[in-house]
Specification:
This protein is an alpha/beta fold. The chain has three domains: about 210 residues, 2-enoyl-CoA Hydratase, Chain A, domain 1, CATH 3.90.226; about 190 residues, 2-enoyl-CoA Hydratase, Chain A, domain 1, CATH 3.90.226.10; about 35 residues, no CATH class. About 40% of the residues lie in helices and about 15% in strands. Strands 10, 11, 12, 13, 14, 15, 16 and 17 form an eight-stranded mixed beta sheet that branches. Strands 1-2-3-4-5-7-9 form a seven-stranded mixed beta sheet, sandwiched between helices. The chain has a two-stranded parallel sheet with strand order 6-8. Helix 4 runs parallel beside helix 5 and helix 12 runs parallel beside helix 14. The longest helix has 20 residues. It binds hexanoyl-coenzyme A (HXC). The site of hexanoyl-coenzyme A has 17 residues, from helix 5 and strand 6.
């Protein structure tokens, strides 16, 4: 009897060791030489110490028709759950040392198992991608397995936060799982994502382009908008994921964790009274305002290198997570263009899905004019942002800092699309358009006929500015709930958030709306 027991334990020990060995020491060394951590090392850095509970370490790969003799225990992906600052998360981490982290049937079943559990218990899913894609030896079984993951990504969307870390290759149809998730982190120089790689590009378009240029972290963080965050290495990436998780609720049924940063709710900032330049054509940095109002000046910016004319990100007010959407006058005068509309629209929808109050800081001269934007679909893209703000039922507060012109004023979370509270600074200019454009339209004939057209234009601009380029007309109509002293912005926002805490909205019955995608 005793002999039997020890044999069983030895079997378990042997199987566990085989699973831990993964692709063997040579491949582990090769992984480290590339500056990449091993799948398990990544999990250890991501989770609180000693909290990882692994599933399916002994699940074997299926093998395949082509040279599929060897099977691997664990099948190239480590899956399970653990905690981040005490809150449960589910994780899968692909192991490049096993068949290049390629996705076979067993590998995918392991991922699906943790995704299903995450939705059941209401906890975030964090995926670490480092894979050569569909396992060639498993053919259609591998392809079908991707479909199973995509299906779960979509079912989990808006139910639990989904975060992807791209820490190696991610190519072909495999890119569509991360791209459905809420946030994509990419590690500089060691990760890439593309639907078709450089060699196919060369064959089809005769263009020479490196993997890095085509689908590296920088390309996706600045050009395509696929990556929300880029980080220099694996260690910093996992630290940033922990930071992000701290702002988010575990699921759409829960509230965000409260973190008291010991920043007084009645703290004012007199410097804000002088933030907006007297000359309204001059730029300033909206980040100064953002940092001033948030608890501890802490702000986690999303998509910081993409569509920099709008700023999106998470911060805290009175300990509570808020989502900020702010025009950035320091970049393209803060105009709304295609990319900015897409970026902010998606961010707003994330916040709404996960009960995160939205605050917009408005200084917007309008939508970007020109054939590039029109033909690129500014009508469709602008409509996304309009739709996203309008359908959001979380607490919505808007602060008009300076320009709020035309359609862009309406779109940026105005009272007219039912934001809950709309505040304005005395420097706000709420009008159909800027003074120059307006004077040129209204007084075109007089200006053309004048002896000194420039002088008359300036005079008419001044008249227009005095009549319209201020918040007081809108305040008289009740479209602005209060014109506030800039220094008191934080105080007003915290009080207003407290008031809106119990907000409930009954939406009309429907399957789902039809956002112009
Ligand atoms: C099976 C794979 C594999 C794959 C890599 N390997 N990709 N095995 N299926 N898809 C294996 C290699 O045979 C090798 O095994 C080990 O992983 C490491 O690969 P290397 O090529 O030595 O590494 P490296 O030089 O770093 O190159 C990595 C790579 C390259 C760029 C990812 O391996 C590659 O191009 N792989 C094929 C990528 C691909 O075309 N995948 C299909 C994409 S389409 P050994 O035993 O030598 O260690 C797709 C469709 C999804 O994924 C559809 C969803 C709907």
């Amino acid at each position: 009897m005793k002999l039997q027991e020890s044999t069983t334990l030895q079997t378990l020990e042997r199987l566990r060791a085989e699973s831990l060995d993964a692709g063997g020491p040579a491949r582990r060394e090769a992984q480290h030489k590339k500056g990449k951590l091993m799948a398990r090392e990544r999990i250890d850095l991501l989770l609180d110490e000693n909290t990882f509970e692994e599933f399916d370490a002994l699940k074997a790969s299926r093998g395949g028709a082509l040279g599929g003799g060897k099977t691997y225990l664990g099948d190239g992906v480590i899956t399970g759950h653990g905690s981040i600052d005490g809150r449960e998360v589910f994780v899968f981490s692909e192991d490049f040392t096993v068949l290049g982290g390629s996705l076979g049937e067993a590998h995918a079943q392991k991922i699906c198992k943790v995704m299903d559990l995450a939705v059941k218990v209401g906890a975030p899913i964090i995926g670490i991608n480092d894979s050569g894609g569909a396992r060639i030896q498993e053919g259609v079984d591998a392809l079908g397995s991707y479909g199973e993951i995509f299906h779960r990504n979509v079912r989990a969307s808006g139910v639990v936060p989904q975060i992807s870390c791209i820490m190696g290759p991610c190519a072909g149809g495999a890119v569509y799982s991360p791209s459905i998730t809420d946030f994509v982190f990419m590690v500089e120089d060691s990760s890439y994502m593309f639907v078709t790689g450089p060699s196919v590009v060369k064959t089809v378009t005769h263009q020479d382009i490196s993997a890095e240029e085509l689908g590296g972290a920088s390309a996706h963080a600045t050009k395509s908008g696929v990556a929300h965050f880029t980080v220099p290495n694996d260690i910093l990436c996992l630290r940033e994921v922990r930071r992000l998780i701290n702002y988010l609720p575990s699921s759409n049924r829960q509230r965000c964790p409260i973190h008291d940063l010991s920043d007084a709710a009645n703290r004012t900032d007199p410097a804000l009274d002088y933030l907006v330049p007297r000359d309204s054509s001059q730029a300033y940095d909206m980040r100064v305002l953002i940092r001033s109002i948030l608890d501890g000046a802490e702000f986690m910016e999303v998509h910081s290198g993409f569509a920099r004319n709008i700023i999106c990100g998470f911060g805290r007010l009175g300990g509570q997570t808020v989502g900020l959407v702010a025009n950035q006058p320091a970049v393209l005068a803060g105009v709304l263009d295609n990319d900015a509309s897409f970026k902010a629209g998606r961010f707003v929808r994330f916040c709404d899905a996960f009960n995160i109050p939205l605050i917009s800081l408005v200084d917007v001269p309008g939508f970007m004019p020109g054939p590039d934007q029109e033909h690129g679909g500014i009508i469709r893209h602008g409509a996304k942002l309009l739709y996203a703000f309008t359908e959001a039922t979380v607490p919505r507060i808007s602060v008009i800092v300076r320009k709020a012109y035309g359609g862009a004023y309406i779109v940026m979370n105005s009272k007219h699309i039912h934001c809950d509270v709309n505040l304005a600074w005395p420097t706000a200019e709420i009008a159909v358009m800027g003074p120059k454009g307006a004077a040129e339209v209204i007084y075109r004939k007089e200006i053309q006929a004048a002896e000194n057209p420039e002088e008359l234009l300036n005079q008419k601009m001044e008249e227009y500015r005095a009549a319209f380029a201020n918040p007081f007309l809108a305040a008289k109509r009740g479209y602005i709930d209060d014109v506030i002293f800039p220094r008191d912005t934080r105080v007003h926002l915290i009080r207003t958030l407290q008031m809106l805490d119990s907000k409930r909205v009954d939406a009309p019955a429907r399957k789902h709306g039809n956002i112009p995608l």
